[in-house]
């Protein structure tokens, strides 16, 4: 018995050591190359969101003006309807719904957008409901961009565009918005495209141009003339326009949001993207959509049905009911589509003023809920030498958060590698925050400035 135990024990140990050496061999070869990130994702650059959310958890800033979401409740009717749906009589609202969009939601999206684009949107064939605007962008890009296709991207840009283009095998071609002048108080209309530079980017390989209006992070609302220039080039070179309009309801007087799909000749070549998260201040709900002619939409549907397939039913139902509620008071000043911008105008003005008074030079946005502010006048007040980051705006935003308790985002994250220097003098502040938190920000900035005198 003892002998058998001994033989069995020896055999087991040698089996274990063979296994371990096999695992070692395997891991040394897989770690090297087999399991590495596919090259279509480039070097797998760090995500600013992952890094700065971690920073917020580590440093617990007193005021987080980094990521773009409200720190106060969404409209009551919106959250109430989700609660009612979850426990309501219709238990089927907790099961799968139509893959390309819950019927009640696509019907309502058609009712909202048809009058805005001056054509009757077919709810079943011209609208796709997606997992946030993010997935609408992904399905649009993966559904159209082929290996070697070029995509024109306007910088600064929402950082996922670049990854999505590369993961489709496409080649991003960047053009930066640049300020016309750098002195004094500016608005986002000061940031413009050089028309000749834009023209020079169109080649016979150009498949798509990505537009973002109102713009993140600058808050620029593209004018009719600027959109016409883009439209003329898209038509001339037979190029698709992917128009990211998630901030469509956050446009400040006297600016007007123009949907590029409404320009002559553009409907046939435009995919427009929207977000329930931005529309109803529920960014965690992650429901978005795209609308476009049926032949373009079919390409998005193929990507969607093979990756997400169908989005969360109760949340889609709640977004549908939220639209119905707002459509019922469309002409009232209480309609959230107009009251949100009104409420945000005061916050924008308050944050712009406090930034100016505390040594920043803010670009006052015409839309969206971010302010990009030049911090270079503060450079003698802050020692960045202890921050190991490569880019000055990363150094500044980290050191500034540690010294003041106010967290912001470094805009160089919104530029391609060769153009990152264009964002280095700035920090991005989000102003869809409680008034008391904006007031706390003001107090912290004043105290910090006083200490540095
Ligand atoms: C320009 C832009 N596009 C798309 C998105 C993604 O929207 P969603 O949260 O609906 O996926 C965001 C979110 O911040 C954004 O700023």
From TrEMBL:
GO terms for molecular function: cysteine-S-conjugate beta-lyase activity; kynurenine-oxoglutarate transaminase activity; pyridoxal phosphate binding. The keyword Acetylation applies. One of its GO terms (biological process) is L-kynurenine catabolic process. It catalyses: an S-substituted L-cysteine + H2O = a thiol + pyruvate + NH4(+). Keywords: Acetylation, Aminotransferase, Lyase, Pyridoxal phosphate, Transferase. Pathway: Amino-acid degradation; L-kynurenine degradation; kynurenate from L-kynurenine: step 1/2. Belongs to the class-I pyridoxal-phosphate-dependent aminotransferase family. Residues 62-444 form the Aminotransferase class I/classII large domain. Homodimer. It comes from Leptidea sinapis. One of its GO terms (cellular component) is mitochondrion. Its cofactor is pyridoxal 5'-phosphate. This is Aminotransferase class I/classII large domain-containing protein.
């Amino acid at each position: 018995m003892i002998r058998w135990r001994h033989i069995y024990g020896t055999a087991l140990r040698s089996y274990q050591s063979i296994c371990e050496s096999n695992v070692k061999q395997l891991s040394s070869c897989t770690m090297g190359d087999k399991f590495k990130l596919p090259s279509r994702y480039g070097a797998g650059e760090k995500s600013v969101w992952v890094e700065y959310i971690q920073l917020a958890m580590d440093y617990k800033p007193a005021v987080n003006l980094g990521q773009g979401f409200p720190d106060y409740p969404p409209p009551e009717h919106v959250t109430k309807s989700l609660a009612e749906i979850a426990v309501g009589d219709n238990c089927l609202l907790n099961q799968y719904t139509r893959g390309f969009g819950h019927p009640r939601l696509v019907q309502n999206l058609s009712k909202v957008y048809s009058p805005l684009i001056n054509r009757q949107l077919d709810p079943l064939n011209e609208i796709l409901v997606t997992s946030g605007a993010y997935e609408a962008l992904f399905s649009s890009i993966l559904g159209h961009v082929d290996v070697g296709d070029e995509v024109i991207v306007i910088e600064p840009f929402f950082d996922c565009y670049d990854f999505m283009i590369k993961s489709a095998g496409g080649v991003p071609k960047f053009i930066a918005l640049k300020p016309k002048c750098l002195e004094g108080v500016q608005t986002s209309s000061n940031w413009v495209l050089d028309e000749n530079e834009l023209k020079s980017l169109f080649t016979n390989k150009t498949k798509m141009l990505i537009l973002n209006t109102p713009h993140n992070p600058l808050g620029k609302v593209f004018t009719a003339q600027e959109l016409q220039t883009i439209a003329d080039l898209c038509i001339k070179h037979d190029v698709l326009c992917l128009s990211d309009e998630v901030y469509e309801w956050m446009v400040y007087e006297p600016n007007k949001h123009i949907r590029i799909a409404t320009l002559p000749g553009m409907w046939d070549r435009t995919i427009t993207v929207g977000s329930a998260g931005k529309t109803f201040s529920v960014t965690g709900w992650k429901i978005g959509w795209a609308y476009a002619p049926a032949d373009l939409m079919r390409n998005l549907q193929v990507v969607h049905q093979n990756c997400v397939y169908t989005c969360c039913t109760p949340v889609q139902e709640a977004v549908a009911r939220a639209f119905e509620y707002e459509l019922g008071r469309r002409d009232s000043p209480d309609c959230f589509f107009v009251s949100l911008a009104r409420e945000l105008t005061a916050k924008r003005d308050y944050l712009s003023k406090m930034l100016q008074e505390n040594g920043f030079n803010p670009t006052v946005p015409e839309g969206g809920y971010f302010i990009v502010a030049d911090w270079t006048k503060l450079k003698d007040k802050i020692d960045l030498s202890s921050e190991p980051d490569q880019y000055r705006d990363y150094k500044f935003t980290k050191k500034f958060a540690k010294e003041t308790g106010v967290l912001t985002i470094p805009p160089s994250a919104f530029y391609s590698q060769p153009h990152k220097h264009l964002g280095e003098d700035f920090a991005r502040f989000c102003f869809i925050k409680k008034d008391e938190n904006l007031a706390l920000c003001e107090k912290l900035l004043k105290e910090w400035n006083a200490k540095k005198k």
